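By way of example, what follows is a protein record of this kind.
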Amino acid sequence: MTRAFPAAAAALVLLAAAVRLPGQSFRSFDEEAAAAESVRLRLGPLRLVPRFRLTEAGYDSNVYYRGEDGEAVADMTATLSPELRGFWPVGRAALLSFTENPEYVFYGREKGLRAFTHSFSAGLRLRLLRGLSLGGGYHADRHVRRVMSELDRRIRDSSAGGTAALFFETPRGTALGLTGRVDDFRYKDVASGAPDDIYGRALDRREVSAGLEIHYRVFSASRLFAVVEWTRYAFAHAESAWRDAEAVAVAGGLRFPLTGRARGTVRLGWKAFRPDAAGREPFAGLVAASEATVRLGRAAVTLGYGRDNAFSYIETAYYYIDSRARARLSLYVAPFLRLDAGVQLGAMTYPGPQTVWTGGGPVVVDRRRDDDRVFSAGPVVRLGGTAGLGLTFNVYARESNAPGFDIRRTFAGAFVTYEF
């Protein structure tokens, strides 16, 4: 089983049915079929990849991310998430996949934040004549987490929908194709018993996307890619219909192989976001979703940068621009031990004036900006293959030009990683 673990982990990443950014998850039919075939845990025709995730298991000094002028609540937390992925190759012409993923979020004293969710996805990939491959999938994902940087607590977020793709693939690995996606997003505060949820009213929506992608293999397993995508946002509640919008994005980059000295994806692009409602400020600018790791002897350096606009649950804000830059240094001091130290610098900028409540009254803040910093450090012990158990201590700090939004938080705990 130890020898099979790297192949199983690669198959798990290759055949994931979760929705991802265009250009960052494409694999040819032959690559997916080869990865599924390499999985050694089998039950009849099924290839099975079990996995267990443990995250944020430890002490949190501020579980509600309350500002410095409020009373912080500390608690013990943990997220436990077993997962089973299955693949069924049907001859050389079809590949089926599925994922079962229950998840439990535990809090010691804040029992109202405890939650159980379940996610499921299924996919089908077909090889057609003359290099064509047709793929489709369905997913119903549910989690309780702090899904957006702006949120001050974990909320239940769900997305249900389908994806489709038609690609022309060459034996060398070049591919050109069309993609489509439909997703219904829903949000709810798990700790609130109120039927009228502010997060749901503001953020529940349907997204419909269509895109064109091209992938070109360079070196042995890396790929250059370019993507053009159109997205329509239609909000579910009548009082939020003014949020309806559409966007066009053009992006390109380089995706490194899953294993080797360099891993990850560099993706940069340009996005034009246009609200339907007159008087709402549009967004046009750089977007990015990049993270790459380079291993140099006993050291590994990870660099990442992300930037995009995201819908705000605050009615007077509409959207904000979320930017994140991160770096991590990993030192492999022994075959079984790694030491990590990292930093993330982020900013949320709001394009227009925003009304916030402080001291019992409203305050108008023009061009609100929240800057946050996260420092983390800790060891990771190898459990076997690429799996490891890590300990971490991190400090989160946010400073805002809006009153009441300065935050301090520390966390100490454990996690399981599959990237040792």
Summary: The chain has three helices and 21 strands. The helical segments are 4-14, 29-38, 198-203. Confidence is low (pLDDT under 50) at residues 1-20. Residues 242 and 277 are 6 Å apart (CA to CA).
